[in-house]
Amino acid sequence: MFLTLLFSFQACVFEDFDEPPVRNLSDLEGNTTIADLKDLHVLGSGTATPIADEDAVLEATVVGNDISGAIFKELILQDGTGGIIVRLDEVGLNALFPVGAKIVMPLAGLFVNDFGDKYQITSAEGERIPAALVPSTVFVTESAEPIEPRLFTIQDFANDDTLERYLSTLVMFDSLQFQGNDAGAPFADVINGESLNRTLENCDGFTLVTRTSSFADFAGLNTPTGRGRVVGLLDVFIDTRQIRLRSLDDLDMEGERCGAVTGNNLISIEDLRAQYTGDVTSISDDTRIRGVVISDFEAGNQQGQNLVLQDGGSGIVIRFDSEHSFPLGTDLELAVSGQELSEFRGILQVNNLSQANATSNGIIPLPSARQATVAEILDNAESWESTLVEIDPATVSGGPTFGDNVNVTDDSGESIQIFSLFSVFAEESVPTGEGSVTAILSQFEDDYQLQINDPSDIDVEGGMTGEEEEITAGELRDLFASGTTFVPADRFIEGIVISDVAATNINNRNLIVQTGESGIVIRLDEAYSFPQNTRIKLSIGGNEISEFSSVLQVAGTLSEIEDLGIDDAPEARDVTIAEVIANGEEWESTLVRIEGLSFVDVTTFPVDFETINMTDGDDILPAFIRGGQASFSGFPVPNGPFTATVVVTEFEGAFQAYVRNLDDFE
Predict the structure, then answer these.
(1) Sign of the CA dihedral 38, 39, 44, 50?
(2) What is 370-460's CATH topology?
(3) What's the distance, Cα to Cα, between the start and end of the chain in Å?
(4) Which of 194-198, 245-249, 257-261, 621-625 has the largest mean confidence?
(5) Rg (CA), the chain
(6) pTM of the predicted protein model
(7) Which residue from 9, 160, 472, 659 has the least number of CB within 10 angstroms?
(8) Coil, strand, or helix at residue 476?
(9) Other CB atoms within 10 A of residue 274 CB
């Protein structure tokens, strides 16, 4: 059984850091432990607990701060009884409280609170301790002396008592490596500002899922490709157990990978193919190859264990011993010493390779496709097999869907078939006409064929067959529920924009549109500015349908949106919170109107990214606020009871309310 944890990367320094100067050392002495503070508070109570003892003083060691910018306005403290977070409305904390510094905190007037099942020291009702009070609240008593992390195994995290005891403390794992295609890949997507998951594993197959914020200063760097030590802060968010990596200094992963096959002699794929004897062949010792992945596993046009690797003008199929997830364009290095080189259904492959032998060097551009006629492709198919080819001019015929017989012909008079029967776009309409086709040259038995990664690999003037038809948000939801992940060809959506991008409480590329009684998020390629209640029309044929953090979305292109003017807002459903929770999947991305509401334990809209709760007296509905960005951040919340018209949304399986602006309240 695999034990999977979420590993959330933050930034700080474990050792060998430049120690900032500290302020005058205090002679205060501690009389209260972190365990004492935890005993005062009940997790999930929703109310901050005041520290009643006015003489209480905490003494602890700093194990996390904002040195790398990923931990924001927090100190993580540890003593002999556990760890705790201190929320401070101050930046540059590393200069004042370096990692390893021993500090004391007079606790009079402070509170113990929690967020996401993590204990925190705060000012009243969970607020950060004001910057003006920091100098009189936290004092350094000894210079920095880094604390030693406790050695853990992945299996240790399954124990609830262990988690409770060591939450927010410094721990260390030994002998871990990033798994398969997550080795040598960027920690996060800095360009698009998105966090990414990466998986660590030990040699017994137990795994940790790592998630790195795009704000970490190492987010754009590649993960290590070796095996070794990982140090971090034990963390949890509600039911998700995590580790905070403080900086790259917390990683020492230069050892040999588990079960790795060595290969010091780098040879070309052309030379590798030359080793094939016509029967099952053992690849020469001490051999490795390197190339670019030219197949897209997400397209479903290859078996899950297969990828196509190209190096220069030669390519080969790599068949792993398990399903892989190496993305299109991965610069991949493989140790292949002694592996089987054989043909399957006529196509040459490296067979039964362990993913432990694969190292990703990141994403790079695809090799240029070889331009050729169909006749030239067929004449050179054996040597061009498993490489990219481009036919231009080409005439595409057949269909009507990609799952049917689709043929490519050109001026040479020869034709070749495009095979897409098992692809995710098999049911989409085929664009027919004259233009160009870019594809992977493949083989099945004695027949050569083309495999495309995406319908856009066919660029013809004829376009998609048939006239465009309208598709509703409800129909898109039904398609996704049935397993379809692409919009059928020749479809457009028309509806009312119910999001308010002007109030900035939503990502400016996420446009929520409602059609009738259903809605959906349109994830655009650029920021938009359409006002709330704008009627729009957008061609979405062939676009991807997917979920992001449980919210259904369809991809869209901003330049293709037709603005049809301001229209009446869709009628909101009159519901209760219980009905929202019961029908959230169906009502997601639509307007609802709820009466008799009040906010729970909050007087102003947050100034940080936070979730606040609304209640109708019977149930709770969270509302996520993009604090610091929403135009109403810091404004007073309405006094209950009030009525709210909000958009139903979802985050990781939990339904929430999207508050658009203050006009949503009456």
Answers:
(1) negative
(2) OB fold (Dihydrolipoamide Acetyltransferase, E2P) (2.40.50)
(3) 52
(4) 621-625
(5) 29
(6) 0.49
(7) 160
(8) helix
(9) 10
